[in-house]
Amino acid sequence: MGSAANEQDITAQMEGFKKAGLGGVHIIPIYGVKGYEKEFLPFLSKDWLAMMQHTVREGKRLGLGVDMTTGTGWPFGGPTVTPETAARTMNVKDGKIAVKPTGQKVKRAAPGGEGLVLDPFHPTAMREYLTWFDSTLIQSPERPRSMYNDSYEAYGANWTVDFPKEFARRRGYDLLTKLDILTDTTTKLPAQLVRMDYHQTIAELLLERYAQPWTQWSTKNGFQTRYQAHGSPGNLLDLYDAATIPETEAFGTSRFPIPGLRIDPDYSIQQFGTPNPLAMKFASSAAHFSGKPLVSSETATWLANHFKVSLSQVKPQIDELFTAGINHVFYHGTTYSPPSENYPGWLFYASTHFGPTSHFAAQFPLLNRYVENCQTLLQNSQVDNDVLVYFPIHDLWATNSPSGGGVHLLEVHHVDRWLLKLPFGKLCEKLWEKGFTFDYVSDLQLSRLRVAKGGSINSGHSTYQTILIPASTYLPETTLKELQRLAALGARIVFEDHTPSHVTGFDGADRRQEQFTKSLSRLLKGKTVSVTSDWEKTLISNGAAQEEMAEKGLTFIRKVYDGKAMYFVANVGDDFKEDWLKLGKDSYFTRYDPLTGEETELPARRRGNSTEHFLSLLPGQSCFLKGTTTKPNLETANVLANNFPVNGNWAVTFLKGMPSLPKPTSVSTLKSWTTFSDSAGYFSGTARYTLSFEVPENIATQKNIVLDLGDVREAASVKLNGKPIGVAWSIPFQLKVPAETLRAGTNSLEIEVSNLSANYMRLRDQQAPDWKKFYDTNIVDITYKKFDASHWEAMPSGLLGPVRLRY
Q: What is residue 331's predicted lDDT score, i.e. its pLDDT?
C-alpha cells in the first residue's frame, strides 16, 4: 500500500512467508495508507527500485520466487500514457462514428502510477508504455522472475486510431460504409457477419498489439510472463497461449454441496457470478496445448466477507482448480503490513486475508503443505486428455453483447453470459459430467496440429484422439481448410449433431458460401469424419476413455506421472462416499493422500474382463491415484461402518485471543462457545476442550479407527492420551487414530479449537474502527458497500460435534 515499505519489514514478512510454507510473492503496488504519506515510494523511483531489488535478493536467500506487475493497480496505464495512446470508445450516432476517450484511469493505482489506461488496440501504445520500464526496471541488476498482467478490465474500449484502416486491410471492405448493418441488432445474416468481422478485428489487434508485444518485451529482458487474459474481447485461448504462465482466477464461492461447507449469505451471485471449471480450462488448455509446465490462478478472491473465511472453505476451491488443470496457486492475497501496526494491520478490500495476522495463520502452513504436495505431482506430470474441443467463438461474436462498448468480454465472473449459453458450453458441461477428458482449441491453434500414424492428433506437446466440433452455425474458411488437412492425414473429427451452415465474413459472403458448402461436403466424405448426435459413443469408439468416477459424482484430472496413469480426484459433492470403480488407465493403483503424505495400496478385484478399485472418499476429501504394475495384497474393501459416540462432560478453557479470555466452563452437550457468556460472543482465539471417556476393548483393538470431530469452527489440534494425532482444518474434520494410541478403558481427549476473527471485529468496529484508514476504496464489504462489522451476528465458534470414533 503506497509502496510504503522498508527493508527490515520486507525481510520480516518474507521470513514469515517462508516459515508458512509459501513458495513466493507477487509485488503489486496500490494506493496508500493515511498517515504514512511521508513513507510512500513513488513507483519506479530510485528508492522504489532499491526496495524491489532488496525483495528479490531476500527471495533468493530464502528460496522464494518474486513476481511483479508491469505497472500499478490494473489494467496497464499510468503517467506515461498520453491522450493519444489512451483507451477509446466508439458508438454510432446519426449514422456516423463518434469516438471519444473512455477516460478510464488505472484502478487502485499506487503513488507514481496514476494515469490513463492505455489503448489495448493502439499500434504503438504498448511499446511506448514499456519504454517506461526500459529506463528504470531494466537497469536493475536484481529482477523478478516474472512480469504479470492482471485481468483486462479496459471498460468500454472498442476502437483505436487506425481501426478503419486495419479493418479494411483484414476484412476486405470499409466498415464506415456498413454502420447501419453493424448497429443492426437483429439476427439478420448481414448484421451477424459484420459483427463477427468487427470482433475478429478487435481480437487480432489485442493479440498482436497488446499481448504479444508485452510477452516479447518480457522474454527479451529475461522475464517469464503471467497473463490473465479473461475479461477481454479476444479469443482467450490465443491470448493465454502468448504467455509463459497462463493465469485464470477463482473469484467468489462455488456452490459445492459438501455437507458442512458454509457459503457467505452476503455474496451476490447476480453481482459476481460463481467460479466455473470450464472457464478455468481456457488457461489450462492453452498450457497443455503448448507444453507450458505452469498454469496458475489468482485464488480465493472474495471467497467470503472479511474476517469470515476459513481454511475449510479455501481447500475445495483449490481442489476445483486442480481438477481444471491449474498447478500453480497464487493466494489473493496478502497486504504488506508493518509488524508494528496494530491489529488487524493493512488490508486490501478484495482479498482473503492470508497474512500473519489472519485468524488461520497457525494452520496456514498445513494448507501450504497440502498445496505443495499436490503441485509437486501436478507440475511434474503430463496431461492425458483424449478430446480436443473446438471453440467456435464466431457464434458468440455473431450475437449482441450486453457489455459496455458492445464487445463481448469473456470474463470469469458471469460465464453463463458467454460460455454456458453456447452449444460449446453445454457440450463441455456434458463432457465434464460424463467423465471425458478434454482441452479446448482455437482457430489459430488448429494449424499447429499434426497427425500421427493411427490417427492420434498431436499439438507438439499433447496428444488427443479426436477433434470434437460443437453444434455451431459459423466456421471460418481457414478453419475448414485446417480440418480438411487434418482429415486427409487421418485425424478423427466429430461434428456434434450437425455441421456449421455459414462461412464467416461479410465481404463476398454469397460467393464464398457456395465454395464453403462444397468444401464442407468433401470433408464429410472422409473416412474419419462423422456427424452424430451420439457423440459419446463415437468418442469411445475413437479411443477416448469415459471415466466412471465422474458419473458417480467425483471430479478429476488424469495425467501421466513416471510413465504411469495418475489421477487427482476431488469429492466436492455429496453423492459419493465409497464404491468400487473402473478406472480407464492402468491395472492397479496406489492412493496418495496429499493432506497427510501417506501412500497406501488401493484395493482391487476382477469383475469379468475388468479390474475394479475400491475408493473411499468422503465429501470434501481428495487424493491421488498413482498407476502401478504391482498387484495389491488388498482385495477387499475396508469400510468404516460403525460409530462409537464420544460423550461426557467437556471442560472448556480459553487459552489466548481477543479482546479478553472468557471464564472456564464445562458442557455436557457441545455447542458454540458464543452461547457461554456475553463476552464469549466477541471472543476470537483458541479454547481447549478436554474430556475423559471410556472405550470398550473390542473397539480399542480395531486396526483402522478414525476420530470424527463433527462440525469444527474452525480448526482443531488434537491430542489423544497425551499424544498429538494431528490438526483437523478441512472438511471432513477427521483424523486417523495411530495404532496403539487408543486403549481399552479410560482415555483422555484434548482438543484446541481456533475460531474466526469475525466475532472480535464485531466489537472492534463498535469501539475502535480506526484501522479503516486506507485511500481509494478504503475497505468495503463483499457487496462493495462501506465495511462495518458492528452489526454482525456472532459466528458459531468452537467444537460443535458430534464427536465419535469410526471403525
A: 97
